[in-house]
Amino acid sequence: MLAVRTLSIMKRPITMASTPSTPPSPQSLPSKTTSLRTLSSKKPRNILTNPIPEEDPKWVPLNLSRSELYLPLTFPTGQTFRWKQTGPIQYTGVVGRSHLVSLKQLDNGDVGYYFHYTTSDSESSAAKVALLDFLNVGISLTEVWESFKASDKRFAELAVHLGGARVLRQDPIECLIQFICSSNNNIKRITMMVDFISSLGNYLGAVGGFKFYEFPSLERLAMVSEQELRAAGFGYRAKYIVGTVEELQSKPGGGMEWLAALRKVDLPEAIVLLCSLPGVGPKVAACIALFSLDQHHAIPVDTHVWKIATRYLLPELAGTSLTPKLCNRVADAFVRTYGKYAGWAQTLLFIAELPSQKALLNSTEEKSPNSKKRKLGGITKVPKE
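^ that's the sequence the OP posted. Answer follows.
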């Protein structure tokens, strides 16, 4: 059981409905999947009042500072595999299941958005609500991080360079299927699988050379056999996806309602219920809970997080092997240090360990006017004078 320590963190008030929504390089779909893909709708909408422009679109500012949202530290970091980089500091994906949107980091630090294929003012309004919900803007990242910096010197050092790494609020079914695909897998193959699953939904259009689709409904996913998924390269995960879809369809009220209800239960109960689904273990369940179910103190523990924990939070366990019992101890250590948003802190510490971010941090420190340097967890750090 995770002991959650309450922090006095303010949530930014917003006036919007609470409706859920969800870059590595593009991957081509396997040729063996042709028979499946022909079942999905391939035609984009016929009525377009906001088509994809030939030149740069008119970006509408979100009025979020770089410290509240920095796209390169949010999208290509393993939270979602459905969003694609479609331009310089620009990412495109689908929110509210059917709204195709591009986000771009503007020169002034703000983030601009542009919706493709909106058909009316009311639809544009619904799309904006879905986008804000997906970006979790009801939570002030600045205030959360201030509490983290007060609790942990290491976090305070990293936060200077890694501002704006925000946790997303994805559609639970999208998140669930994506992380079943992620089990014991690599980014390239995960992306291929998620792209294939996505292609079973209704086609929304193309941006930056990528095709985008609505995420398929449970009814559509139920039409896919284990054999077809195996032929598409899913391996043993094919059985888990088919089994999970069947389980969700059997839930009272339907799978979507059942998953959404897990936002209202305690984290340990949510983990147990998620682990009842085929192919969902504690780590995958924690990812789903953190990235789609408002369980902000969920800690997905893998070998990378284990190394972070033994280096900074539980040094007495350095050199030991990770076990299920120790996974709980690691999660408890994060919660004791960071409180009810511990999952957000763990996400930033995880990002800091990615090779691309280590290189960036080293490069940043090398440009410092201070000549005296020391190493902090593999990251070059300039001590304060």
